[in-house]
Amino acid sequence: EDQVTQSPEALRLQEGESSSLNCSYTVSGLRGLFWYRQDPGKGPEFLFTLYSAGEEKEKERLKATLTKKESFLHITAPKPEDSATYLCAVRPTGGFKTIFGAGTRLFVKA
Amino acid sequence: SQTIHQWPATLVQPVGSPLSLECTVEGTSNPNLYWYRQAAGRGLQLLFYSVGIGQISSEVPQNLSASRPQDRQFILSSKKLLLSDSGFYLCAWSRTTNEKLFFGSGTQLSVL
Prior knowledge:
The structure holds 2 protein chains of 2 kinds.
Chain A: E1 3-7, E2 10-14, E3 19-26, E4 30-38, E5 45-50, E6 56-59, E7 62-66, E8 70-75, E9 84-92, E10 99-100, E11 104-109
Chain B: E1 3-7, E2 10-13, E3 19-26, E4 32-38, E5 44-52, E6 55-58, E7 64-70, E8 73-78, E9 87-94, E10 102-103, E11 107-111
Parallel strand pairs in B: 2-11
Antiparallel strand pairs in B: 1-3, 3-8, 4-5, 4-9, 5-6, 7-8, 9-10, 9-11
């Protein structure tokens, strides 16, 4: 069964303290892996798409990487405005379904 | 540019009452449209998707239904709400089934 597991469930960082969020996935075939950011009471906002192992994408303080079984979202020198829930999702080959993980809630304290 | 509108933002309904949530997309044609539900601490659950007018696929058996009366309009309905229908409902669109999703701002539904 296609599955996405994110860890940790919650992460508390001090401003400037770099860390990584993990997304482990099990799919029969991967068409794409997506990262989204979701603020409380809002819809998710797209961050990155990764298609193949070894691929990396960067945007400001965020960098996403992909292996054959997991993806990491690295946050370098985070700021309080980076506080949000980060969602990982996979698009298996075949069908129309994008499968989401439960997310990692990130809290960055000034 | 493309935009997605979803309303209402908040809704409180009694058990057994009907439901109608509406979503419209602007600035694109023939989008793929989706309804998701998000429970606290859980991943987004796909409820319905549509690749064209009148074409609706259901992912989860329930007392909800969806319709697509126009190319860029997607409606989520129920004839009689249950307590378990409470949650955060999100409409989304994509250009193709393989691409990223663009989400609306969501509707927080409380069934009391």
